[in-house]
Amino acid sequence: MENMSAPEVRDRIGRRLIIFPLPLQGHINPVFQLANILHSRGFSITILHIKLSLKLPRLVLRTGAVCSFLAFAAFPLLIEKGYLPVQDDRLEEPVVELPPLRIKDLPWISTAHKEIATTYQQLYELLENMVKETKASSGLIWNTFQELEEISITKLGQDFEIPTFALGPFHKHFASTSSSLIAEDHSSISWLDKQEAKSVIYVSFGSIAAMEEKDFLEVAWGLANSKHPFLWIVRPGSIRGAEWRTVSPASICHDLLCLLRHDRRCLALAPVLVNSRYVSHVWRVGVRLDNCQSREKIEAAIKTILEEIEGGEMRERALRLKEEANLCLQPGESSYESLSRLTSLPN
């Protein structure tokens, strides 16, 4: 609160928010970004790293896409209709209630890992409670924007009769700042600066996903055989013996040509399955590789994106989405107006 007048300090005291982020990198980043956004609108922010049950009016921040949340919220229906548990002989069947998803795109849990002891019945109860508590909140905040997920946001409004605030992209409200849970290593920036603009493949498998060594090697060889420069972020625990390198995508996006994400079915409730369907078939800005363990398929996908006409068209569509993401933050546009509605809510 530096350089603030006494009335401004009093105003902030009267507009206090308490934020509870989950202790996961994918949640902490957008929570800190949202805190910055609301602080700039006059709110005093307190962030707690513990779980408390306070009897206060509350808003729910969902850090994932609206389309993924709708799939999670529909989990009881998906079980009732027989879509779940997933059956290998029905993977290509459409999920009529959630177009354009197929059964293979649904969030699911893997029972192959001993550490995942949750049964579908327990998961049903968990998600049922999540939906109940969300509907009991004062509203939903999303790190997305209307133009990107208009159909999903409309359906959300029909299913959840509470205010919805699509404020994203959060990171475009301010200059990039770090909220990494581990020390960052910027040693790769000097190498990146020597590469041609829009020539580098950025590879990231997120903060949770893990790979077997053989899969790691297949991806590595697929990247190497593509003959395109790449920057791969590897964290401790993702592959045995790997070293961690972390670079903020926001700081290098001007040099990147494509992004490679991990979408093998190795995680419980992986929303990436839903997201990848939208990336490849709705927004059409990427190629999906299903359960890909082949360096040849990885190499071919990279070359499709970077060397072929189809890839050029994907980049053009991505550029249009980037322009819309910038525009939606301007006065009178969707995310700007959503933020105004949010900050005008009664205390």
Q: What integer is the average pLDDT?
A: 80
The H/E string reads: HEHEEHHHEHEHEHEHEHHHH
- Number of H/I helices: 13
* Main sheet properties: 3 strands, parallel
Uncertain runs with pLDDT below 50, 5 residues or more?
Answer: 111-117, 244-257, 261-270
> Which strand order spans the largest sheet, edge to edge or round the barrel?
3-4-5
What is the beta-strand fraction? 5-15%
What class do helices, strands and sheet pairing give?
mainly alpha
Radius of gyration: 21 Å
The overall strand count is 8
- Which percent bin holds the helix content? 25-40%
Tell me, briefly, the overall form: globular
Distance between the termini: 21 Å
In short:
With 347 residues, the protein is mostly helical. It is built from 13 helices and eight strands. A three-stranded parallel sheet has the order 3-4-5. The chain has a three-stranded parallel sheet with strand order 7-6-8, with helices on one face.
